[in-house]
Amino acid sequence: MASPEYPSSELEAGQISLPELGKMFKVQTDEKTGLLRKMFSAGAPVIALAFAELLIFSGRINEAAVAYTLLLIVLSFSITISKKLEVRKIHQAFILLPILRLVNLSMPIFFEANLYSFVFIYVPMAIPATIISVHQEIPGEKKADLLKKMKIYLPFSILAGLIFAEMEYLLIQTSPLIPDLSPLNLLQLTIIMIFVVGLIEEFVFRGIIQTRLEEFLGPAGGILLASLLFGIMHSSYGTPYEMIYTFLAGGTLGYLFYRTKSLSLVVMIHGFINIFLFGLIPHLGPGLGLI
Q1: Are 219 and 258 in contact (CB under 8 A)?
Q2: CB-based contact 46:224 (threshold 8 Å)
Q3: Distance between CA atoms of 233 and 243, rounded to whole angstroms?
Q4: Taking the model in full, what pTM does it have?
Q5: Which end of the chain is more exposed for a tag (fewer CB within 10 A), N or C?
Q6: In the predicted model, what is the mean pLDDT of residues 143-148?
Q7: What is the dihedral of CA 52, 56, 58, 62, to 10 degrees?
Q8: 2-11, 17-26, 28-37, 47-56: segment of lowest average pLDDT
Q9: 230 Cβ contact partners less than 8 Å away, ≥ 6 residues apart
Q10: Rounded CA separation 226/247 (Å)
């Protein structure tokens, strides 16, 4: 914030006393200090998360697990001792990401990576996410409004999901998570991708993290930083293009969530992206075999 300029004539005339001018500068200094503290409180965990994901990207899984464990401890300690409520809330939101990644890293040890492994990764996340959302009083969506808008949300979600999935498939050429397109397999894929993966990821990234960051940094900063985290957390695909893509896709979902305040909308879009990406497109080909 720029310092106000007062003509020397005003000071000489006694319209603004030196003590008053000193108080004005003190207020400005406090505002700048508060901004720097906000940037550090939000930025330091993001840098730590980015470092841990860089370790995963480079194949150093054990080191990444250690880094995430240390970050989990630090964030827990900060939540316990911080006197600032807004800092405690933002660190409570951030703590979901090391928990998610540590659960994710543990799964290959016990389970073969398949459609059902998503259940073991994401369902446990519902517990801490729900506790944090209740504790922080994250506002919910009115069911009456949702039912009225569903006739618009559903077709829009399917179309948006197809467009995003087609673009993402060009980048990572995914393999199908179901052996064929039988009704039972498609039903299982739909349930898991919308009501497990899409619901939990959007609840964490948009419903909790973006909501907290918007209050902490403003709408633009909240959407940008939440989308950046969303992109970074896709480092396990091993390509920077996927992280850039998911950052942009996350920004789109974040903006839609900010404008509509509808978690259901972004959950459906996210879910349909995954249905097309891991089911229909790998079996039918790009353009669903119509091109």
Answers
A1: yes
A2: no
A3: 8
A4: 0.85
A5: C
A6: 76
A7: 90
A8: 2-11
A9: 205, 246, 247, 249, 250, 254
A10: 9
